[in-house]
């Protein structure tokens, strides 16, 4: 897992940076042309083919495609103007998803969502969804305060929704327990060198944009802090630690009644190693609902760069549902092992072969089904 992904998550955009962006020298009357000149267009197309010798999946995970077949995962289109170095600079970010994975965001454009936010099964009807749509403002306060208003990615989590930015193709139990996005206001601040923080407020159930919660006076609050060790710490230099909390009501279904108070606590880290080309990571997610039920996810990551074009990534993922279950999975304890070979043969193309094994640790599988599952997948992504 690359540290810049956490920075991107903290700023809640896929492209936001406060680095320099060339500005077109247009006359004052050319306001439209000046605004368009800084716009960047990017995205990707993700496809896959999956095969499972046995079809019983003991623990569902977000964005999982059907087994034994070819899949169009998602088409991502991002149109954005990043912030520049000006004290009062402004930018915007619009990111749209099309395809089966778009349904899981719970805000399909023009129609009610087929599945709630945080759902674990891919929707049957492919659609178009708003992943991000926000305005970014830079305020010259202290070291610079960045305000993001609109729909933005969640600020917690080791993995992100965009599949190509993760070390593995299939998602972890951890991202399944977390929110995907928020509708509100996020403030991000560079406290000092190596320390950044963010605080946000959003509407509850805001990921379901077409079916808002009836009580919009109740809000979701979030905060996160990232600390990166300086060079002066020697062997620990470059170690990055992120801690965050998201607390608010979450409906059990799109527009559903009786929302539950949900608190997500996240701690994640990347740690350098003395072994060249070897990177390690750790993540812990804790979810509490109404102060009664708890879910814990612990994950370990290891990545090894085999060559300039190839890499090997390992993830060990433990899920404990507690007494009452949660996180979109039907109770129990599970252990997931995922091994991914990443190879870049064609320019602009990310190709990954993956083996995943999910084990039901408490043996509570239904009668007639196995309590473990093997999955083989090939993922091909073109990025533009």
Q: What is the fold-level CATH name, i.e. the topology?
A: Porin
Helix content: under 10%
For the termini, the CA-CA separation is 21 Å
Shape: globular
CATH class: Mainly Beta
Mean pLDDT: 79
Q: How many DSSP-defined strands?
A: 16
Radius of gyration: 21 Å
Number of separate helices: 3
Strand content: over 45%
Strand order of the largest sheet: 1-2-3-4-5-6-7-8-9-10-11-12-13-14-15-16
Structure description:
The structure is a single chain. The chain has helices at residues 3-11, 31-37, 173-176; strands spanning 40-51, 69-81, 90-99, 127-139, 145-153, 181-192, 195-203, 219-228, 240-250, 260-272, 278-289, 293-305, 310-320, 333-343, 349-360, 372-383. A hairpin with a 5-residue loop joins strand 14 and strand 15 (349-360). The protein has a single domain, classed as Beta Barrel (Porin). The protein is built from three helices and 16 strands. It has 384 residues and is mainly beta. Strands 1-2-3-4-5-6-7-8-9-10-11-12-13-14-15-16 form a 16-stranded antiparallel β-barrel.
List the helices and strands and how they pair.
Elements: H1 3-11, H2 31-37, E1 40-51, E2 69-81, E3 90-99, E4 127-139, E5 145-153, H3 173-176, E6 181-192, E7 195-203, E8 219-228, E9 240-250, E10 260-272, E11 278-289, E12 293-305, E13 310-320, E14 333-343, E15 349-360, E16 372-383
Antiparallel strand pairs: 1-2, 1-16, 2-3, 3-4, 4-5, 5-6, 6-7, 7-8, 8-9, 9-10, 10-11, 11-12, 12-13, 13-14, 14-15, 15-16
